[in-house]
Amino acid sequence: MKPRALEHQRGGDGGGGGERSEWKEKKKRRWRNEKRLGGKGGSLSLEAFANAKSNPSGYNPSIIKKQREFYRNAKFVKKYKKTLTQQGQPSDHKTIPDLEVPFSANSPEFVISSVVIEDGSSENVRKLSKKKKKQTLPSLEEEYKKKRAEQEKAKMEKELIIRAEEEARAKAESKRKDLRKKMFKKTRSGQPVMKYRIQHLLEGLVQKPNCNS
């Protein structure tokens, strides 16, 4: 009976010792945190605040943005090299892809098809671009003149149609006003003048057969 009782007592002491050590560890961590924050109060001490401001946190949005751009460009370069290897071209070639540059008075070439760093090839490219400029400029000028003439012709036709409609509208309006004035004319005794009314009726009868025919 004695050995079992001793073992049970030792086991109970071991469990209590574990809880005690865990409580001591929590207390120690709490004491360290309070010391780091400058005491038991809720606010930081002046020394802790100065240390916190002086130590950099490592967060910088501009650096993060530059890193993202660098990784994105590296991804594009990797993809470009992969496509070149798939096409059977070496990835470390010294040519720049085709560039289309608009024509200006200062630049001697109209379109630069490709720029090569090797000697001699760049001159040939510029000669080809000048020849292309000579061939394309007259055709572009003719096409522009043709489109301009078509636009001017369409504009003049539209103006003529609008002017004819305005003249017809003004003529109809003046005729309507004249007829209204005649219809409202009266004699000295206050009776309406039948002459204009009869004339209007006769004109209507003359116009009806013409419309039917």
Automatic annotation (TrEMBL):
Residue numbers spanned by region Disordered: 1-43, 170-190
Biased composition (Basic residues): 177-188
Compositionally biased residues, Basic and acidic residues: 1-11
Short name of any one Pfam family annotated for the protein: rRNA_processing
Any GO CC annotation of this UniProt entry: nucleus
Domain of life: Eukaryota
InterPro entries: Fyv7/TAP26
Name of this protein: rRNA-processing protein FYV7
